[in-house]
Write a structure and sequence with these properties.
Layout lengths: L11 H7 L12 H17 L11 E5 L9 E2 L1 E6 L4 E9 L10 E4 L5 E4 L1 H8 L4 E3 L5 E3 H8 L18 E2 H7 L6 H9 L7 E4 L10 E2 L6 E4 L4 E4 L1
Antiparallel strand pairs: 1-3, 2-11, 3-4, 4-5, 4-10, 5-6, 6-9, 7-8, 12-13
């Protein structure tokens, strides 16, 4: 979900007149307000008996903010399972300017592995491949592809999956682009340990949280600059 940047704003006075029960004087296109509205409605839906087929899964997807002045804060893709009230927050960032080197965004997965790809494919990875893109551009639910591969009845006969372009492991990308790096790669090499992990968030008041992920600062170290680089105390 996203909000258009070129949204039309209305005054706080007019907002209060039109929406007397709302204490947030912002437009309805505000992304956090949208997230709250959509997820609250879906929570009500999945709580009703027989409202959702037993074999159906409902997910919501969102991207957190990040720290513009705090380099230890990471933006994350949130994939929330609305029925189990569990989400995964997957940190990601730009390694290099995409216009100069295509496929220069890195995402860290729950198993602590990393993949580097263009932003659109980073988002597809964060979705958990719930949808697949076909050769030709169509996007279909993964369940339809599974039915086709299993020989079950499906309108996706002859459907061919389009592989994610420019997808590499972080190790492959760094070998192909020597001298290009991020502060977290530098810090982890310096410390000799992982400082950043994807997060699993569970429970009513946690799984829909939009807080960014904070990189660990180990004992005996401090952050300098914009909190992006470590130095020993």
């Amino acid at each position: 979900m996203y909000a258009k940047k070129e949204s039309k704003r209305i005054s706080a006075t007019r907002f209060a007149r039109y929406f007397p029960g709302c204490k947030i004087p912002i437009t309805y296109l505000h992304p956090v307000l949208l997230w709250h509205t959509v997820t609250t409605s879906i929570e009500k839906l999945v709580s009703k008996p027989d409202a959702v087929p037993r074999d159906a899964k409902i997910y919501t997807l969102m991207t957190t903010d990040h720290g513009n002045t705090d380099g230890s804060l990471w933006q994350a893709h949130i994939r929330a399972d609305m029925q189990s009230q569990c989400s995964h927050a997957l940190p990601h960032c730009s390694v290099w300017m995409e216009a100069m080197i295509r496929g220069s965004w890195v995402i860290r997965l729950p198993d602590d592995s990393e993949l580097v790809a263009p932003p659109v494919n980073i988002e597809a990875i964060a979705e958990g491949k719930l949808w697949y893109e076909a050769v030709g551009g169509a996007r279909l639910p993964a369940a339809m592809l599974a039915n086709e591969r299993a020989g079950k009845s499906s309108f996706a006969v002859g459907w061919r999956e389009k592989e994610l372009a420019l997808l590499k492991t972080s190790q492959q990308w760094r070998q192909d682009n020597p001298g290009k790096s991020t502060s977290h790669w530098y810090n982890e090499k310096l410390v000799g340990a992982k400082l950043l992990s994807a997060e699993e968030r569970r429970g009513k008041h946690e799984y829909l949280s939009l807080r960014p992920i904070r990189e660990i600062t180990p004992h005996g170290w401090q952050r300098v600059g914009m909190n992006d680089v470590l130095e020993k105390i």
